[in-house]
Design brief:
Layout: E1 2-5, E2 8-11, H1 15-26, E3 31-34, H2 39-44, E4 50-51, H3 53-61, H4 66-71, E5 73-75, E6 78-82, E7 85-89, H5 91-94, E8 100-102, H6 105-118, E9 122-124, E10 127-133, E11 144-149, E12 154-158, E13 161-164, H7 171-176, E14 181-196, E15 205-210, E16 213-221, E17 224-231, H8 242-253, E18 266-280, E19 283-284, E20 287-289, E21 295-296, H9 304-325, H10 329-356, H11 363-378, H12 380-392
Parallel strand pairs: 1-12, 2-3, 2-13, 3-9, 6-15, 13-20
Antiparallel strand pairs: 4-8, 5-8, 6-7, 10-11, 11-12, 14-17, 14-18, 15-16, 16-17, 18-21, 19-20
Helix pairs in contact: 1-6, 1-9, 9-10, 11-12
The chain binds adenosine-5-diphosphoribose and P-hydroxybenzoic acid (PHB).
């Protein structure tokens, strides 16, 4: 049985866990990151890829933004498409010059892993956390993280603080759940997401509401498109052929006067469920939850990774004070502050989701969506609000 001692034990090497380790290392705080998947798996996992202004700034400010600035695509606007018409929302103009960077989540993960390894950080892949112990410990015994490697070796990490960054299905949320209030809502649809070797149809993201369902055109590079279709909940990826996916995208995105979507081989496909989940509070004694372990937002609006990064930006500051100066002030405020921001992101994601996904058998709901879109594209005030939320909701 391996016995290891560190200051902060981090469960999960997604954006939250890796960014936290990175920020702590820069402040001279020791941590160990435990990740049940392989390095290759987390580096290849395709997820959302829109970085808010402040997220991109944090990567820059902490020395991991170089490749993002070189390869990421800077965006200054988005398109809202509905009723067969296109409407541009000039995000940068409306949001005091701020912009977005489209850069895949797995690229951020790769950059953080490379920086961590270069700095000598202890990141252990293929290592599953099986339990948390003594998270409520007062004096005497310190908290511990129990793990097992893929080779079957068991161990325990003794630490001062546990950061639960292990996503929606990890042990951290489960360890808290006896005392947590979990608020959850499922939306009556899902997204079929594909990555295609095809140039993006336009330079900006297209959010499209059609009576046939929602569609989203995003991208990863000038050669790679990332596309989504609203599908019924419980849909299986195998039930769609490539031709059906392209056909449905073209039908939903059709506009008066014609428009065509460049097609190419589909290299990856997955179903994303649409949920809102909030775990309150985000702290249980020595256990601090961050990212998807604490909250899941529906993907419309691309807030998941930005929220995760914002959580650990605050958490790192709090833990530096706590661990190196025995000052609990920021740690005591962490949950309230992070939940307030996460609820704001839920509300924005809900706004976007409920405006853009038509519901079968709800003619009034569908007309209300059209009225809301009509109001939005006719009102600079509403667009200004949307732009501020889209470009930088989690930064303040
Ligand atoms: N032991 C070790 N690792 C675990 C365990 C466990 N028991 N359970 C889960 N994990 C790991 C997962 O394998 C995953 O790599 O925790 C990690 C959690 O990472 P994410 O799910 O990416 O969550 P988070 O870091 O909070 O990122 C949040 O980023 O990629 C976006 O859309 C994504 O909204 C999400 C956001
Ligand atoms: C993506 O590029 O994957 C993406 C973009 C915008 C969203 C969700 C996902 O709202």
């Amino acid at each position: 049985m391996q016995e290891i001692r560190t200051q902060v034990g981090i469960v999960g090497a997604g954006p939250a866990g890796l960014m936290l380790a990175h920020l702590l290392t820069r402040e001279g705080i020791e941590s160990v990151v435990l990740e049940r998947r392989s390095r290759d798996y987390v580096e290849q996992r395709v997820r959302a890829g829109v970085l808010e202004h402040s997220t991109a700034e944090l990567l820059d400010a902490t020395g991991v933004g170089e490749r993002m600035r070189r390869e990421g695509l800077v965006h200054h606007g988005i398109e809202m498409r509905f009723g067969g018409e296109r409407h541009r929302i000039a995000l940068t103009e409306l949001a005091d010059g701020r912009s977005l960077v489209v850069y895949g989540q797995q690229e951020v993960v790769k950059d953080l892993i490379a920086a961590g390894i270069a700095a000598g950080s202890d990141i252990r892949f293929d290592t599953e956390v099986t339990g948390l112990e003594n998270i409520d410990a007062s004096c005497g015994s310190s908290p511990a993280i129990v793990f097992r490697t893929s080779e079957g070796e068991e161990g325990r990490i003794w630490c001062e603080v546990v950061a639960g960054c292990d996503g929606a299905h990890g042990v951290s949320r489960a360890s808290a759940s006896g005392r947590a209030r979990v608020l959850a809502r499922e939306y009556p649809f899902a997204w079929l997401g594909v990555l295609a070797h095809a140039p993006p149809s336009s330079e900006e993201l297209i959010y499209c509401r059609s009576d046939r369902g929602f569609a989203l055109c995003s991208m990863r590079s000038p050669e790679l498109s990332r596309l989504y279709l609203q599908v019924p909940p419980g849909e299986r990826v195998e039930s769609w052929t490539d031709a059906e996916i392209w056909g449905e995208l073209a039908a939903r995105l059709a506009i008066e006067g014609g428009w065509s979507l460049p097609e190419g081989p589909i290299i990856e496909r997955a179903i994303t469920t649409m949920r809102s989940v909030m775990v309150e509070p985000m702290r249980y004694g020595s256990l601090f939850l961050a990212g998807d372990a604490a909250h899941v937002v529906p993907p419309t609006g691309a807030k998941g990774m930005n929220l995760a990064v914002a959580d650990v930006r605050d958490l790192a500051r709090a833990l530096v004070e706590k661990v190196s100066k025995a000052d609990d002030g920021l740690a005591d405020e962490y949950s309230t502050r992070a939940l307030r921001r996460a609820w704001r992101a839920q509300e924005f994601s809900y706004f976007m989701t409920s405006m853009l996904h038509p519901l079968p058998d709800d003619p009034v709901g569908n007309r209300l969506q059209m009225a809301r879109l009509d109001h939005l594209v006719g009102s600079e005030d509403l667009q200004r609000w949307l732009a501020a939320c889209y470009v930088d909701l989690t930064g303040r």
